[in-house]
Amino acid sequence: MDKHSDQKRAVQYLYPPTDPYDQRMLDVGQGHRIYVEQCGNPDGVPVVVLHGGPGGGCSPAMRRYFDPAYYRIILFDQRGCGRSRPHASVTNNTTWHLVEDIELIRKTLEIDAWIVFGGSWGATLSLIYAEEHPSRVRNLVLRGVFLMTQSELDWFYGGGAGKFWPEVWSRFEGLVPEDERSDLIEAYNRRLFSGDVALETRFARAWSSWENALASIHSTGAGGEAPGEYARAFARLENHYFTNAGFLEFDGQILAHAGRIKHIPGTIVQGRYDMICPPDSAYALSQAWPAGELKMVRNAGHALSEPGISAELVRTMDRIAGK
Fold first, then answer.
1. Residues 137 and 154 occupy one common structural domain
2. Are 54 and 79 within 8 A, CB to CB?
3. I want to staple 88 with a disulfide (CB 3.0 to 4.6 A). Which of 36, 192, 212, 233 is the partner?
4. Is 120 noted as a catalytic residue in this protein?
């Protein structure tokens, strides 16, 4: 029996999954092993869930959008984050490695084509994967669209969002000397990859807190303090990808290649008051991809947990299931 068949057996069909995660690790090469789980109906319509970040990891809450009697649900932690190993590693960790990993999961599980479901960075990765492998995507469901453009990075790390949250922005940029504040992604990069774990963790928590503070429309501006291990993986991976412009060939690549997915039906669920990924990206995508129906959710921000966002995603998946 070949390696892929052995690994397929290790990915259990359980709802909810209860076996130890180290029984569900897929060797993707280049020294990386990624956590993969399946749940729901093993004979159901397959849907792969792409989490945000980069670096966020999947969670049990991400199963809630899918009827387990109808869907075969596949979740995984992308390279370097969550339960994947090595933890927080950026070596051999690019967008194109992740696209290859998604394809390896599909082939390992013997899936011909699947629904691709992703939010924030997961929406970015969903679009790139679909543009590279359009014949393998039967439907796209996207939330909180991020197109990995310089203008979006400038909005969130160059002071745009900070104009709405000046006190939170002051905390975020205040950790960096004034002469380095013209490029906070680079300034944080030097500290997140300093080799001093204590310093890396301090700046990782600040990086994560800035994003968390703006995720919900009901935010008070308190970003909380994420556990050090999680924050370090999240911040290092996110910063690594943003420092490298998502490893895309040129700025605006996703929209420029939208013609590749023109035949794929889909839904874009976007919070009207999303401070992290403003709605103009979702709107631009809907214009370039007419098969993608834009659902603008009023009184909602960025977070997957926003009631309006969650309700629209459930409606979308139920509609696809014919309910």
1. no
2. no
3. 233
4. yes
Q: Are residues 143 and 157 in the same domain?
A: no
pLDDT tens column, 192-225: 999 999 999 999 999 999 999 999 999 998 877 8
The two structure tokens encoding residue 286: 């809907």
| Tens-digit pLDDT profile for residues 240-295 | 999 999 999 999 999 999 999 999 999 999 999 999 999 999 999 999 999 999 99
Range(s) of the domain holding residue 122: 3-148+248-320
Of 133, 118, 148, nearest to 266 by C-alpha is: 118
Is 179 in the active site? no
Backbone angles phi, psi at 109, to 5 degrees: -90, 5
260 and 187 fall within a common domain: no
pTM above 0.90, yes or no: yes
- Phi and psi for 209 in degrees, rounded to 5? -65, -40
Among residues 126, 257, 274, 286, which one is catalytic?
274
- Asked if 121 and 220 sit in the same domain, the reply is no
51 and 187 fall within a common domain: no
Would you call 302 a catalytic residue per the annotation? yes
Determine which one of 84, 89, 120, 208 is catalytic.
120
